[in-house]
Design goal:
With about 140 residues, the protein is of the alpha+beta class. Helix content is about 35%, strand content about 15%. The protein has one domain. The chain is built from 4 helices and 3 strands; from the N terminus they run ααααβββ. The chain has a 3-stranded antiparallel sheet. The longest helix is centred in the first third of the chain and has 20 residues. The protein is elongated. The termini are far apart.
Length: about 140
């Protein structure tokens, strides 16, 4: 707990509460949210038959989507909307694990190779409009 962090919390009106180490039950709300995220991640991985080592991509995707869905506790606004004051565009959302194709530039292939390649959609890039994909082999 640095002095800078304490000053930041005070300035922003953030109430911080300390809990005893190794007692997650004291932080029930956050623990319940984490469990909910893990349940959705497991369902997505198994439903789409995506390899388990991509659990971190699935987790990021769950949080990305949940931050763009309306929530009753926020008067049917989205967490992203509350944070940025703008309603998020969700027209780009895709089904996790669905097949997608990407274009292979001319300089990366010879004239007999395919111009596109099939891969698996695994998430969204936070800093651009790009998708995250898994290329098998």
């Amino acid at each position: 707990m640095s002095k800078e962090f304490i000053a930041f919390c005070k300035k922003e009106g953030i109430k911080k509460e300390m809990i005893v180490s190794y007692t997650p039950e004291h932080n029930g709300l956050a623990e319940r949210k984490n469990n909910s995220i893990v349940e959705v991640v497991c369902a997505m991985l198994h439903d789409q038959k995506v390899p388990n080592f991509l659990w971190d991509e699935a987790t990021s995707t769950v949080v990305y989507v949940q931050n763009r869905l309306p929530h009753q506790a926020l008067e049917n606004k989205t967490p992203k909307e509350i944070f940025t004051s703008f309603k998020p565009d969700i027209s780009h959302l895709r089904v996790f694990g669905c097949p997608v194709y990407f274009h292979v530039p001319k300089d990366k292939r010879n004239k007999l190779e395919a111009t596109g390649r099939k891969c698996t959609f695994v998430g969204y890039c936070e800093n651009s409009k790009a998708y995250r994909i898994y290329i098998l082999g």
